[in-house]
Specification:
The complex is a heterodimer of chains A (271) and B (85).
Chain A: E1 3-8, H1 16-29, E2 34-38, H2 46-50, H3 60-64, H4 70-73, E3 75-76, E4 83-86, H5 99-109, E5 115-119, H6 126-132, E6 137-142, H7 146-162, H8 164-167, E7 174-182, H9 184-188, H10 195-202, E8 206-211, H11 214-222, H12 233-245, H13 262-270
Parallel strand pairs in A: 1-5, 1-6, 2-4, 2-5, 6-7, 7-8
Antiparallel strand pairs in A: 3-4
Helix pairs in contact in A: 1-12
Chain B: H1 3-8, H2 15-52, E1 62-69, E2 72-79
Antiparallel strand pairs in B: 1-2
The chains are: A alpha/beta (271), B alpha+beta (85).
The complex binds adenosine-5'-diphosphate and magnesium ion.
Chain lengths: 271, 85
């Protein structure tokens, strides 16, 4: 049985696509056959972050409409074995996705893949519902910031009432908190919500903390998911995320501010 | 508190603690509303079934509303009875 995992948040710009790309890549690097699907119809971006934008021929909506076979739309990742990308359509018709269509695609994907990762669009409307409906697990991507936390809570409410698992009264969708764009220095200064605050409010288990990092932008510029950069904090944080998701017990990292060097301390105290 | 103090406040009274407090109140409120919306239609049917034992009423003559204000919730049930009952 393939596991379907949605990367969702409610709010836009919190790091869903960044996370989907690195999470899917990480699962594939550990040897799991993984496909990552862009559900952001009209605002396709995952292909850019994965670095396969020039190889897009067909997309999810083409497959649903029967205009292309699934294998024609799937793009095999160039850097990682076991990994494929299914791009979103650029159509302006937001209703192009249907539950029946998605279910048929998932059924076919489940024959070849162990993990199906769904990169959700922002919002709590049609597109976000389509992305989360069939999920077995959800990565609640949250920034330590009021509107993001609130929107995450609303998405949790939707998962608990509108997903397939909720409607069919099955075991609930397994929820994971991914706190990203975390800035330990600002947390220490008391002007950013800390890990415990967010966890206390959302009351779901913490999967990983990904620090705010310049390397994420660099990785996006190159079209290489940041998890490939194992010398960077963000890359290591995503690596931990994948390992924990697969059952490893690792202490949480990147929640303390970086140790200041002597010169930095002097400079800071004078500044 | 002056605007200047407001932005200068640090650690103990930092803006993060304000954020947390506001979020806790808001999220609790929104969760209550959510659950309210979930069970209201079912409860309305239950009430209707009881009223029907004693009066002839139609489905659309009953309205049920749940309002939440701070930590106080009120349930408002309105049943319109037929004229010659
Ligand atoms: N950990 C991070 N550190 C710094 N920038 C980040 C981080 N995660 C995401 N970003 C940046 O935030 C922006 C939005 O990220 P994206 O993954 O596209 O969010 P979403 O898919 O939720 O809209 C991008 O510019 C991305 O580079
Ligand atoms: Mg996105």
């Amino acid at each position: 049985m393939a596991r379907i995992i949605v990367v969702t948040s409610g709010k836009g710009g919190v790091g869903k696509t960044t996370t989907s790309a690195s999470f899917a890549t990480g699962l594939a690097m550990k040897g799991h056959r993984t496909v990552v699907i862009d559900f952001d119809v009209g605002l396709r971006n995952l292909d850019l972050i994965m670095g396969c934008e020039r190889r897009v021929v067909y997309d999810l909506v083409n497959v649903i409409n029967g205009e292309a076979a699934l294998h024609q739309a799937l793009i095999k990742d160039k850097h990682t074995e076991n990994l494929s990308v299914l791009p979103a359509s650029q159509t302006r018709d937001k209703e192009a996705l249907t539950l029946e269509g998605i279910e048929a695609v998932f059924d076919e994907l489940a024959k070849d893949f162990e993990y199906i990762i769904c990169d959700s669009p922002a919002g709590i409307e049609h597109g976000a519902l389509m992305a989360l409906y069939f999920a077995d697990e959800a990565i609640i991507t949250t920034n330590p910031e009021v509107s993001s936390v609130r929107d995450s809570d609303r998405i949790l409410g939707i998962l608990q009432s509108k997903s397939r698992r909720a409607e069919k009264k099955l075991d609930p969708v397994k929820e994971h908190l991914l706190l990203t764009r975390y800035n330990p220095t600002r947390v220490e200064m008391g002007d950013m919500l800390n890990v415990e605050d967010v966890q206390e409010i959302l009351a779901i288990p913490l999967l990983a903390v990904v620090p705010e990092s310049k390397d994420v932008l660099k990785a996006s510029n190159h079209g290489i998911p940041v998890i490939h950069q194992q010398t960077t904090d963000a890359g290591q944080a995503y690596n931990d995320m994948v390992a924990r998701f697969l059952g490893a017990e690792l202490p949480h990292r990147f929640i303390e501010p970086p140790k200041k060097g002597f010169f930095q301390k002097v400079f800071r105290s004078r500044a | 508190m002056s605007l200047l103090q407001f932005f200068k406040s640090s650690k103990s009274g930092g803006s993060a603690s304000v954020a947390k407090e506001r979020l806790q109140i808001l999220v609790a409120h929104e969760r209550l509303n959510r659950s309210g919306h979930d069970f209201l239609p079912a409860m309305k049917q239950d009430i209707l079934r009881v009223v029907e034992k004693y009066f002839q009423v139609a489905d659309n003559t009953i309205s049920v509303r749940l309002d939440t204000d701070g930590d106080c919730s009120t349930l408002e049930v309105n049943v319109q009875l037929p004229e010659n009952s």
